[in-house]
TrEMBL record:
Transmembrane segments: 61-78
Keyword Transport: no
Domain called Multidrug resistance protein MdtA-like barrel-sandwich hybrid: residue spans: 100-295
GO terms classed as biological process: transmembrane transport
Coiled coil: 139-187, 226-260
Positions of the UniProt region annotated as Disordered: 1-54
Alphabetically ordered keywords of this record: Coiled coil, Membrane, Transmembrane, Transmembrane helix
Annotated protein name in UniProt: Hemolysin D
Keyword Membrane: yes
Basic and acidic residues composition bias: residue spans: 14-33
The species this protein was found in: Pararhizobium antarcticum
Length: 407
């Protein structure tokens, strides 16, 4: 008997040939019929995928990872014990240099810019030239004034010589007048004796006395002439000294004019590379105006800012491994040159004031100067401002006997 899959199966108990019913128990009949009913009632479904066994590779990888971690930890510990604990490092470090700012001492128009940006120049090479004409005229004018005063000096010398001759003449005249006085005195005495003996006349005595008085008056005039000649010499000598002082002042003015003339040519103070060139031909510049900068690439150094907790092991002379960020594959060996006398905050424009009641402790940084090897500087590859990482090996710090520790 046919039934649909959606209907319940009808169980018919079989009947024998003799019409008797099957004597099997109902439980046995149900057990036989249920599989058939289940097959008829269960719709056809696709085959379910077979379950794959769980892989065992994970159990094999975990021990390998553990061994790798232990090996890495062991290597790191060994490296720290043998080297790391002796190294003091910081990445707060930069390449620095004593950069010269090129500025004129005098004002004027730019006549020639002798260099271009990023050009390497030697010490003494002309960088910028200002218009020299005004300063040359000032120097020539000062020299002309000096020459004029020197001519005046020669005139004073001649006048002094004439005054000295007049003095000598006055002195000679005085000697003659003194002799005249002596003669007049003798004549007067003789006339007086004769008159007392009634041999001479009174008129003769009077004439002798008049002659004596005239001689004495002339002698006084001779003294006055000598004084006038001496005073004239003193005046001329004072005028000559004034002329000499004027000449010295003019010479100073001439020297200043020549210096100003020399300052119209701005020269390189040392070997380096020109940077930050900010001037062109024809520009009007004033004294002190910044025109360019000169970086001494062969005199660079490193300023590394170490924490205050690190400087106990820093000693000048210690070796330093330097890693420049621009050249990651290269290691440079430098030397600790010096340690700053104070932290960076001490030299700041606004130092911290911790006495106000609001105190927060901050680890201070101490600048440390690191010298670079000459061969690296001579290569000219380094530039001021590059970031570096420095590692100071405390084992190489000089000891009291001049040897390196750890050797």
């Amino acid at each position: 008997m046919s039934v649909s899959n959606n209907s319940k199966a009808i169980h018919v108990r079989p009947v024998g040939d003799d019409g008797s019913r099957d004597h099997r128990t109902e439980t046995e009949a149900r057990a036989v019929d249920e599989p058939v009913a289940d097959l008829q009632a269960t719709p056809s479904a696709p085959d379910a995928p077979a379950q794959t066994p769980v892989p065992k590779r994970r159990n094999k990888i975990l021990p390998v990872i553990a061994l790798a971690v232990l090996a890495a930890g062991g290597w790191y510990g060994y490296e720290w014990w043998t080297n790391g604990r002796f190294m003091i490092s910081t990445d707060d470090a930069y390449i620095e240099g004593d950069i010269a700012l090129i500025s004129p001492k005098v004002s004027g128009y730019i006549e020639t810019v002798n260099v271009v940006a990023n050009q390497h120049v030697k010490a003494g090479a002309p960088l910028i030239t200002l218009d020299r004409e005004d300063y040359r005229i000032a120097a020539d004018q000062a020299q002309a004034q000096i020459d004029t005063e020197k001519l005046s000096l020669q005139r004073f010398d001649a006048q002094i010589a004439g005054a000295k001759a007049s003095l000598q003449q006055a002195q000679a005249q005085k000697s003659a007048l003194a002799a005249t006085v002596r003669g007049a005195e003798t004549t007067q005495k003789r006339a007086s004796n004769l008159e007392s003996k009634a041999v001479g006349t009174v008129a003769s005595l009077d004439n002798a006395q008049v002659a004596l008085d005239q001689a004495k008056a002339n002698l006084i005039g001779g003294d006055a002439n000598i004084a006038v000649a001496s005073a004239n010499i003193a005046v001329l000598q004072a005028q000559r000294a004034e002329a000499e002082s004027t000449i010295r002042s003019l010479e100073l003015a001439r020297d200043k004019a020549n210096r100003d003339l020399a300052f119209t040519v701005l020269k390189a103070p040392y070997d380096g590379i020109v940077g930050n060139l900010a001037v062109q031909d024809g520009d009007l510049v004033s004294a002190g105006q910044r025109l360019a900068a000169l970086v001494p690439v062969d005199q660079l150094y490193i300023d590394a800012n170490f924490k205050e907790t690190q400087i106990a092991g820093l000693i000048p002379g210690s070796k330093v491994k330097i890693h420049v960020d621009a050249f990651e594959d290269e290691t440079i060996e430098g030397t600790v040159a010096s340690i700053a006398p104070a932290s960076g905050s001490v030299f700041s424009l606004l130092p911290a004031e911790n006495a106000t009641g609001n105190f927060t402790k901050v680890i201070q940084r101490i600048p440390v100067r690191i010298a670079l090897p000459k061969d690296v500087l001579d290569s000219g590859r380094l530039r001021a401002g590059l970031s570096v990482v420095v590692d100071v090996d405390t084992r190489t710090s000089p000891s009291s006997d001049g040897t390196a520790k750890g050797q």
